[in-house]
Design a protein that fits this description.
The complex is a heterodimer.
Chain A (H helix, E strand, L loop, with lengths): L2 H14 L2 H36 L6 E5 L6 H8 L7 E14 L2 E8 L1 H7 L4 E4 L7 E5 H6 L7 E6 L15 E12 L8 E4 H8 L7 E6 L3 H12 L5 E5 L1 H42 L2 H9 L4 H39 L9 H24 L4 H5 L3
Parallel strand pairs in A: 3-8, 5-7
Antiparallel strand pairs in A: 1-9, 1-10, 2-3, 2-6, 2-9, 4-7, 5-8, 6-7
Helix pairs in contact in A: 1-10, 2-8, 2-10, 2-11, 8-11, 10-11
Chain B lengths: L3 E10 L2 E11 L4 E5 L6 H8 L7 E6 L2 E2 L5 H11 E4 L11 H12 L4 H10 L15 H13 L5 E5 L7 H16 L3 E5 L3 H4 L4 E6 L2 E7 L17 H4 L2
Classes of the chains: A alpha+beta, B alpha/beta.
Amino acid sequence: MKKRQMYLRMITASLMRRRSRMLVALLSIAIGATILSGLVTIYYDVPRQMGAQFRNYGANMIFTASDEEMSLDDVHQSANMIPSDDLIGMTPYRYENIRIRERPIVVAGTDMESIKLTSPYWRIQGDYPATSEQILIGANVAESFRLKVGDMLTVSYTPEGAVATDEETVLDNMIDFEITGILDTGGSEEDYVYVSLEDLETLTENKGSIDVAELSVQANSDELAGYADKINDSGLPVLAKLVKRVTASETTVLSKLQALVLLVTVVVLALTMICVATTMTAVVAERRKEIGLRKAIGASDSSIIKEFIGESMLLGGLGGIFGSVLGFIFAQQVSIHVFSSSITFQPLLIPITILVSVLVTGLSSLMPIRSATEVDPALVLKGE
Amino acid sequence: MSLLELRNIYKIYGELHALDDVSLKVEKGEWVSIMGPSGSGKSTMMNIIGCMDKPSKGEVLLDGVDISKESSRNLTTIRRDKIGLIFQQFHLVNYLTAVENVMLAQYYHSIPDEKEALEALDRVGLADRAKHLPSQLSGGEQQRVCVARALINYPEIILADEPTGNLDEANEEIVVDLFHKLHNEGTTLIVVTHDPEVAEVAQRTLVLRSGRLAKEIVNKNFTGKIHFDEGDAFRKEEIHE
């Protein structure tokens, strides 16, 4: 039998045949590793989780026309430059002046489905328009015209260059819309009415250009700036801009939150080391007699250190394996209860947790083991 | 040249002279018992012979080499290579099986060899208990494992500290028989005991009192019983040349 085989046999026997003793140490290491791995998982997942939360506050990038007119195709082409995993939604808006009961109102032609993604905070009494000839009206418009959901609303549009055929009649385009919902945002959106782009094209008899597109992108401010630069350099008549108020506050909150989680992680790591060191001190202390015996039968200090460190590291490895699994479960529970969504599994965290656990346990054991090697083997001979 | 020689050994702790000018010789293949009441200096002498302590004064010659000034590290090496230890409390590693406990001594000495360790257990009559943990062995069996561990590396000297102190009569007999066997094979035995029945089977018995060698009794019949007589003269000529 090789020495290494005997070495492994000894350290595994120490763990396997002293299960009840080692269980306490293992528990202490596993709990430390669990909290550590859980916190690190949360630390890395916070930007994603918080980013998703921030997306509830609306778009963080807007497209406007640069010099030329911006078509819907230009907008789509530009949006496609953002990775689809990061692009939560893109809503084009085309604004036109229309008249309702002879009063001028601004209508926005848009994509109702994507509004739900880029402006999830909009509160709708009723529903979004689902088919053509349905309209969503702002709360202020509803109040001015005493309109309610289900009412019919005639919208008039005077085409550019239209002239009166006689003194009284102007050739207006008119469509009767069914009001499906009333929009309540607390902002200027309440002054407008919203129809589908197709209905607006019918009303205006032209495709027209897109005035603004709002985008909700899940990315940090640097990544966002990168996407914007890429779009601006593409040669398309699209000017991409970041909504500073959203991206800046997002970055600030995220960095503060990450710093907080990092601080907690470091404190937990320190506490874990103290806890593991205390446990290992107790484990080593109760084996002073065994250390004395080993020395008496010829073990050098370095071989005793090697054996005990080996045991500690094996224990640390086992604790790390349990910790990385339990840590993921812990992070998952935190994520579900705090962010209402599941966590992203980080496979790299398993070897890192095991490695950190092994190192922490090894280092924590070093001091008590070193002091244990000072045991006088003569004590064993005396039967003390 | 004697295998072991102590020359005017002192061990002083403050005012206390645990050993006070002790000199003795042990020849190769000899079986020597050391007796004495508590506090007589038996343990101190054991520690010095077992390379676990150094004398305050004097020389300890092992195989003609003075080891009294050696560093702790060198003493560990000497102990590992030349001394086999048997303890009163057996001191087996409780999570290792009998054979693994024997292999532990091989591990620190050279290369563990399970076959050889099993043979050593066979020599002490424990071949069938090789895979048992100490907690599954009786006191006598544990002490026999301890003997197997002590002899596995073919030491120059087997040093036994109260080897029968924790054994019943039947097991005491087994261990003493083992000593006979080892002695017949040429092993040098130094046995510290306060049991006269164990001491008297040795070739020589040294009696310590207050850190001094008070008496030496030679067992002329060797296998016969020796009855201690407190009035016996200290036979200096037996100890010193």
